[in-house]
Amino acid sequence: MAEAESSEAAAARVPDKQSKPRRLKGHKDCTTSCIASRDRPRVIVTSGEDGRVCWFDMRCKDVARLVMDVSVEPVTSLCFKTGNEDMIYASSGTEIKCFDVRLATKEWKPLENYNYNKEEINKVVCNLKSSFLAAADDSGEVKIIDIRQPCLYKTLRAGHTSICNTVQFLPWRSYEVISGGLDSMLLMWDFSKGRSHKVVDFGSLDANSSSAGQCVNPAFVYAIAVPEIDMLDKSDKICAVARGQNGNRRLHLDYSLGGHTAAVSCLEFSLFGERGKFIVSGGNDQLVKVWNWSSYRDLGISDNNDILHSTINVGHKVNSLCTVPADTDNLVVCDTSKVVKVYSVT
Asked: For 296, how many CA atoms within 13 A lie in the half-sphere containing its CB?
C-alpha cells in the first residue's frame, strides 16, 4: 500500500501536459514509426500500416509535403542513410527497400531491395559510416547488411529465443550492435565475428526480485535508445531500455516515480534544449513521459522526486516517437491513430 501511495504521489507532482497538439495528416491507417532529419531540423518522416511513407515540413501546413506509397504491407520501420538524408530505408514484411526522395514519381520504385530476413522486420537502422544496415526480425535474428557491396554481411543468431524487437548500432564501437527481444534478453554483439559478448537476462533479474507485476507485464525488451556521438561527453557510454516489468538495474524510470503503468514501447534521448538531457518514453498506457534523467546522472542520487519532468496523455497506444532540435513543436508521436501528433516540450 505504501508503494502504491508513493507512485500516486509521484505522478501527482507532475501535471499532465494537455496542450493541444498539432495534427499532421497524410496517412490512411495507424502510424508505425517516425524519424527526424538532422540535416533539415524541421523535417520529419513517418510510416504507417497503410504502406505509406510521409514527409512533413513543420514550417508549413499540417499536411504531408510528399506521400510515398511504397508497399501493400505495413511499413514497420524507417531510417535515413547516414550522411545523405535524401535516401531512406523502409522495412515492410521481410524486405528492406531503399528510396531516393529526389527521384519523385507517381510510382515509387526502390533503388535497392534487401530480402535477407526470413520473418517480419521490426527495426532497421543504419550505422554512422553508412556502410551497414541492421535489421531485427520475428525469428529472433539480426541481419547485418553491407550496403556498399551490397550483400549480407553477417547473421546474428543463437542469441534470442523469441522475437527480436529492436537493434541499435553503438556509436563508440565500429562493429558492435545491441539488440533486445521478447525473450527479455539484451545482447551486445561483435558483428564482425557474428557472436554476442555480453548478455543481460531481465527475466532472470525479475525472477530474483520481489515484484508482483511480472506475470501481467513481463520483462520483454521493446526498444533501445543509445546517445548520439556528440552526447557522449555528458551521457557516457550507456543505453536506455524500454521494457515491461522492472529489473534490478541502476536507474528505474518506473511507476514508483510517476512513470508508465503499462509496457514502454519506445524511447529516445532528446534533441531539444541540452542534447541528451531528457529521455522521452511512450507506452501502451497511452502516455508519453519526459524524464530529466540527467539530474540523477549529475547529482548521483537514487531517490529523485524531480526526475519526471512532464507527462503527456496522447489518447492512443504509442508506437513510436522522435524529437526535434527546436524550442517548440519538438516532440513527434506516432500512435494507433492515423494522425501524427506534434507537441512542444519546454
From this structure: 19
Distances, alpha carbon 34 to alpha carbons 17, 122, 149, 197, 257, in Å: 21, 13, 28, 31, 27
CA distance 312 to 240: 20
C-alpha distances in Å from residue 211, one per residue of 2, 8, 153, 206, 256: 14, 18, 41, 7, 12
Bridge partners for 126 per DSSP: 133
Find out whether 134 and 143 touch, Cβ atoms under 8 Å. yes
User: What burial class does residue 111 get, using C-beta atoms within 10 Å of its C-beta: 0-12 exposed, 13-18 middle, 19+ buried?
Assistant: exposed
CB 124 within 8 A of CB 82: no
In a 3-state reduction of DSSP, which class is residue 212? coil
**Scanning the structure block, which residue is given the C-alpha cell 556528440?**
230
Q: Residue 8: how many CB atoms within 10 A of its CB?
A: 12
C-beta separation of 339 from 23 below 8 A: yes
How does pLDDT run across 183-224, given as a tens digit for each residue?
999 999 999 999 999 999 988 765 555 444 444 456 799 999
Cis preceding linkage at 150, omega within 30: yes
Which pTM value belongs to this model? Answer: 0.88
The string of pLDDT tens digits covering residues 240-281 is 888 765 544 556 777 777 789 898 999 999 999 999 999 999
Please classify residue 205 by burial: count the beta carbons closer than 10 Å to its beta carbon, then call 0-12 exposed, 13-18 middle and 19+ buried. middle
CA distances from 260 to 17, 24, 184, 285, 286 (A): 15, 25, 18, 7, 9
